TrEMBL record:
One family name in Pfam for this protein: RMMBL
Protein name per its UniProtKB record: Zn-dependent metallo-hydrolase RNA specificity domain-containing protein
Organism field: Schaalia turicensis ACS-279-V-Col4
SUPFAM superfamilies registered for this protein in UniProt: Metallo-hydrolase/oxidoreductase
One example GO MF annotation: RNA endonuclease activity
Domain Zn-dependent metallo-hydrolase RNA specificity: 38-95
Length: 116
């Protein structure tokens, strides 16, 4: 798809730093996919009006409605600052342990299971 100039890739919503989407949005001449450099000749279009993600308030509502309720939440999506801010809000608004993920951080999934 990317090497063919007859194709068009539509990027919807925010493209996080370090992702292929961000590279394409910034006009990269090639991107790495499955270990191979792929030339970009397709037309790249950014649709800034459509978001494919829930906002923080929607995510907090979703976590709050989960049954059984988690004991801990690890925020791993988005920019570092956004993940940190969401973790703070989750902890404050739902009184549960929430923390942003970190690169190369080992977690024990059993610690995240509900106490209910």
């Amino acid at each position: 798809m990317l090497p063919d100039e007859r194709n068009c890739v539509v990027l919807t919503g925010y493209q996080a730093v370090g992702t292929r989407g961000r590279s394409l949005a910034e006009g990269a001449p090639c991107v790495k996919m499955l270990g191979t450099e792929v030339a970009v000749h397709a037309r790249i279009v950014k649709d800034e009006e459509f978001s494919v993600h829930a906002d923080a308030s929607e995510l907090i509502d979703w976590v709050g409605a989960l049954r059984p309720r988690p004991r801990k939440v690890l925020t791993v999506h988005g920019e570092k600052e956004s993940a940190e801010a969401l973790a703070v809000r989750l902890a404050q608004e739902l009184t549960l342990e929430a923390m942003p993920g970190r690169a190369n951080h080992r977690i024990v999934l059993a610690e995240f299971l509900s106490a209910e």
